[in-house]
Design brief:
This protein is mainly α. Helices cover 50% and strands 11% of the residues. It folds into two domains: 3-50, no CATH class; 67-140, no CATH class. The protein has six helices and two strands; from the N terminus they run H-H-H-H-H-H-E-E. The chain is elongated and about 65 Å long.
């Protein structure tokens, strides 16, 4: 889930808790000290006794070392063309997906505000010269 979706769902949950007279504090209940966290922790402990990989990080999001190869394959197979000059919904979506992929993979931008509100003014094309060698790079300034 996107962080904003998670936050919204937690607010809905807390509204239900409040109606049932369950005390909570958003700042402490999800940082290990509050009542709600204590309930979840005991449930997770019970789950981990049954399955030691539960909540352990196994199978969580990881960097895909073959990501560049995969996107190149999709381009070669004609499933994806971010370089198309067509004016169509498919071409627009391919360009948008490629921009999001580049911002995430190479500039470590996450989806919520870092990509959604990224503006061209934050992107700079730079050159650095040292010892007779010129390096060109792109920089994304996170606001």
């Amino acid at each position: 889930m996107q962080p904003s979706t998670w936050e919204t769902l937690m607010k809905y949950s807390f509204a239900v808790f409040r109606r049932k007279n369950i005390c909570y504090n958003y700042a402490t209940d999800f940082n290990g000290d509050g009542e709600f966290h204590a309930v979840l922790k005991s449930q997770w402990d019970a789950q981990m006794k049954q399955d030691e990989t539960f909540a352990s990080g196994v199978g969580t999001a990881m960097f895909d070392w073959d990501g560049d190869l995969k996107i190149r394959e999709c381009y070669r197979e004609g499933k994806f063309n971010p370089f198309s000059l067509e004016i169509s919904k498919q071409a627009y979506n391919d360009r948008l997906k490629y921009a999001i992929w580049c911002l995430g993979r190479y500039f470590l931008c996450r989806g919520r505000k870092e990509i959604a509100f990224c503006m061209w003014g934050q992107v700079r094309f730079c050159e650095l010269s040292a010892d007779g060698v010129t390096e060109k790079y792109v920089e994304v300034n996170h606001l």
